[in-house]
Amino acid sequence: MKRAVALICLMVAVMLSIQIPLRGQNSANLTARDYFKELIASGGLEGTTKKYACFQDDPNADSFFLLGESKSVRESMLADGTFNRLPGETQELMKKEFLTVRGYPKGIPWRGEEFLGKDESSWISDARMLDESTPIRIRLKVDWQTLRYKYAVELLNLDSTYRTEVASFGRCEQLPA
After folding, report:
1. Which helix or strand (DSSP H or E) is residue 114 part of?
2. Phi, psi at 4, each rounded to 5°
3. Per-run averaged pLDDT (10 residues), the chain, 177 residues
4. Which among 95, 139, 103, 137 has a CA at the least distance from the CA of 119?
5. Could you state, in order of their start, the residue ranges of all structural domains in the chain?
6. What torsion, rounded to 10 degrees, do the Cα atoms 36, 41, 44, 46 define?
7. What angle do CA 35, 36, 38 make, to 5 degrees?
8. DSSP reduced 3-state for 77
């Protein structure tokens, strides 16, 4: 049993260091904000997820993430007339509320964006397998008044019930249009 717990802890640690914007070692002494400023100066922010930049409370963290809202993209597309040119199925998907998240560990963007659907007062990803016996999902809770957030990787039981989580906390900042 101890060996299984140790293996799961090791796998979660590896996954967190690669896939999500949580704490990391900073050998070059650059912080998440340093990497963010570097990307802004070079025009290197990718994708449509550019409404908010989110930074952990840990000032030494070297990862940040960008957050976008489906309603912003939808409103922009309605305003410029491109929404009506989308296929009907895509229009129906765009009418749903979701958030997009793109992480930047050490300033390097994730391969794609994570899509989080509304779940009561938070936003969650689809569950996926960490290993043969450990389903996980991402949960993001944002206080839209203060822009404080909790970003968590939830470890689930095989029946998809909640087991435990690894979380980070921080604050988002609205980006200029």
Report:
1. strand 114-119
2. -65, -40
3. 44 44 55 93 73 94 91 78 80 81 92 90 93 93 97 93 93 88
4. 139
5. 2-174
6. 60
7. 65
8. helix
